[in-house]
Every structure is written in structure tokens, then in C-alpha cells.
Design a protein that fits this description.
Structural class: mainly alpha
Number of domains: 2
Number of strands: 6
Strand order of the largest sheet: 1-2
Order of helices and strands: EEHHEEHHHHHHHHEHHHEHH
Distance between the termini: 39 Å
Largest sheet: 2 strands, antiparallel
Length: about 375
């Protein structure tokens, strides 16, 4: 950071990566089917794909972010680079963007593996959120006493699984479900993202909410630092740019999250029998396994979004339900919409119970009271 008194030099920014999207001429030709291309892509190392930002959809999204910062008279432009997921390396003012967003084929593969791909509106919500992290780290805002008073201690333990209050008015709502409640760092990033969102009257939107104090704080601090800028070094291997992702796309999707531990395959059979009927009771009904497969993507996306669990975790549950529904020869009965609602509600209950207890057992009143007491401390 180049500071002399109150004068800070504004450093021009260049993209972390330039060039064109992937062109795997050795992978596809005019007669290649998607299944063949898919298998070829899965076997490719990500670092060998030549993925770059220029000319891609990501370039347009970054341009939009910078226009929004300019509209707020903020001089700093956080560098953006391609990585394995949305993120901002801890303490580093860089924005990592998922590599699949620069190529349509990789987006198609991501949609198959995770259930959905961010549209532009969703991607911009993530971009603004990560920009909040970058600005927090760039100017060490989290070290300020007033920041800690408003958001809490930055040193609070960071946990991937956290208990949220859906009725809280002390936090803004921007991405995911109640993500601002995860950690003070996320609270600031979400608050900044809401503040930056174009055409949003946040004073009216959050009137009479305690969260409004946080938005007013961001508004004041951005006025203080708006003329400041940084020279940010390029990402290192520890920041996991695509050049350092020396593993295949298949390994990317197979790594990271453990499936929900189902010790006994029969553990959820009784629940499935409540949602679906036996073949003798609903002989003309669609096989339950086929029903779940038909609605697989929409259930996967909704459960992952509202529970905050990654798609890989939810997929492990859905795959298990399909296997057991087939083994039990269950059929759908009644209205399709009603069955889908019940299936989704059941899946949400299972995932959330696992999220907070790390088991699939039903929560007893005693354990629930204990958990409630711990949450209030």
C-alpha cells in the first residue's frame, strides 16, 4: 500500500489472466458426442486447459463489478483470477472465481455435477460478496476497534457448519441462506455486498433492522477509503490459481466433502415408506426411484441452497434414497407435487439434522435443549 500522509497513489489494474477460452482440438471434433467429450474433459488436468478470463463471461462480470465500484467512487479494484471456487484467500485482497465460468462446456459439466450454474445475477452477488472480503483485507478494516464493535471479533473460530437464526434482523440477506451469520468476516462481506448493489435502497430495505447500523458503518468507512488503492501481487500457488490446479476435472468433483455417513443402509427405509407406497398399494404409480431421478436436479439445488451443504453431500443422500427405493420396490402415489414437497422436506430435515449433530439420529428433547443452550452462550 503506497501511502504518504493522506495521499495514496492509484495503481492501474490488469486481469490476472488473459487470452481465449479452452480449445481442446485433441479432445473434440464435429462427430464427437457430449458423452465422449465429457469423458475426455473429466480426464484433463485443469492446469493444462489454458483457461483464461479475457473474452469470457467472467470478463464481463468483472467489468460490471468495477463499474459498480466506480459508481461508488471507490478507487481500489481487487484483482480477479480463476480458481476452484468462489473465494478470497484469507487475508489477501484477491477474488477467486470458479474456473468453469469461462467455458460453456465446463459450465455444462458443472450443471450436471452440481445441479446448477450461476446465472449473471447470482454470479454478481458472489462477486460483490468476495469484493467485500478483498476490501476488508486490503485496508485491514477488521483490525479497527469500531469494526469489531459492529461485527465482532475477526479471530472468532471459523466453522463451515454453523447454526443460523432465520428470523434474525441483525444481519443482511444477500447470498445463500443467512450466510452473514456464519462469521464476522462473512457478516461484513455480506453487508458490503448489499451496500454495493445497484438500485437497492438499503436504507428503506433494512429500516428498523439492527442490520441498518452495519450498512451505515460500511457507508461511512467507504467514504474514508474511497481514494485509496493498492498494488496487489499476483496469486501464488497457495491461492490455487488454475495454473496450480494440477489435478483432473474428475478429481476436482470427487474431492473435498465426505458423503453423509449412513451406517446401516436400512436406516431411512421407514421414512421412505411414509413418502412412497408399496407396489401393491400403488401398482400404477411411478417407481419411487424413477420419481427421485426425475426430480433429482431440482431437489439437489434446493436442498444445497437452503441447507448450505455442498452439492456433493446432498447428492450422497439422494443417491442412497434412489438405491433404497429401488430395493424396496416403492412407488409414488397421490399428487406428484405433494410427493415432491414431502420428499424435499424430508431431505432438508435429514441434511439439517446431520449438519448440526453430525449424525442421522433424531434429535431428542434433551439434546435439543443442550444445543439451544450452547447456541445462546
Amino acid at each position: 500500500m503506497q501511502v504518504k500522509g493522506t495521499t495514496v497513489s492509484v495503481v492501474p489494474f490488469c486481469f490476472a489472466r488473459f487470452g481465449t477460452g479452452i480449445a481442446p482440438v485433441d479432445v473434440v471434433n464435429s462427430t464427437t458426442t457430449w458423452d465422449e467429450e465429457r469423458q475426455a474433459l473429466l480426464g484433463k488436468r485443469i492446469s493444462d486447459l489454458g483457461l483464461q478470463i479475457r473474452g469470457s463471461r467472467v470478463e464481463r462480470l468483472v467489468d460490471q463489478l468495477y463499474k459498480e465500484l466506480a459508481a461508488r467512487s471507490i478507487s481500489f479494484r481487487p484483482p480477479v483470477y480463476l480458481s476452484d471456487q468462489w473465494g478470497c484467500p484469507d487475508g489477501t485482497p484477491l477474488i477467486g472465481v470458479p474456473f468453469y465460468l469461462v467455458d460453456e462446456r465446463l459450465e455444462k459439466l458443472e450443471e450436471e455435477m452440481s445441479g446448477a450454474v450461476e446465472n449473471d445475477a447470482e454470479a454478481m452477488r458472489y462477486m460483490r460478496h468476495e469484493c467485500g472480503h478483498a476490501i476488508n483485507y486490503a485496508f485491514h478494516l477488521y483490525e479497527r476497534a469500531d469494526w469489531r464493535r459492529i461485527f465482532g471479533s475477526f479471530d472468532r473460530p471459523y466453522r463451515e457448519r454453523y447454526r443460523a437464526d432465520p428470523f434474525s434482523r441483525a444481519h443482511v440477506r444477500h447470498i445463500l441462506a443467512w450466510y452473514a451469520q456464519k462469521h464476522p468476516d462473512e457478516d461484513f462481506a455480506e453487508t458490503f455486498a448489499v451496500w454495493l448493489t445497484p438500485d437497492l435502497d438499503w436504507r428503506s430495505e433494512y429500516a428498523d433492522w439492527p442490520a441498518l447500523e452495519k450498512l451505515e458503518y460500511v457507508d461511512r468507512v467507504m467514504t474514508e477509503i474511497k481514494e485509496l488503492a493498492l498494488e496487489v501481487p499476483p496469486p501464488t500457488a497457495e491461492d490455487l490459481p488454475v495454473e496450480s490446479m494440477n489435478y483432473t476435472i474428475a478429481e476436482h468433483y470427487d474431492s473435498g466433502w465426505e458423503p453423509i455417513p449412513i451406517g446401516d443402509a436400512r436406516q431411512l427405509d421407514a421414512d421412505l415408506k411414509r413418502i412412497f407406497a408399496s407396489a401393491s398399494d400403488a401398482p400404477s404409480g411411478m417407481p419411487a426411484a424413477e420419481f427421485i431421478q426425475r426430480h433429482y436436479r431440482e431437489v439437489l439445488v434446493r436442498l444445497s441452497y437452503w441447507t448450505g451443504e455442498p452439492p456433493a453431500v446432498v447428492r450422497s443422500l439422494l443417491d442412497h434414497l434412489i438405491t433404497r427405493a429401488r430395493a424396496l420396490a416403492l412407488h409414488a402415489s397421490g399428487l406428484e407435487a405433494a410427493t415432491l414437497i414431502e420428499l424435499t422436506a424430508f431431505g432438508t430435515a435429514v441434511v439439517m439434522n446431520y449438519r448440526h449433530t453430525q449424525s442421522l439420529g433424531r434429535t431428542t428433547r434433551a439434546s435439543a435443549a443442550s444445543q439451544s443452550s450452547e447456541a445462546g452462550t
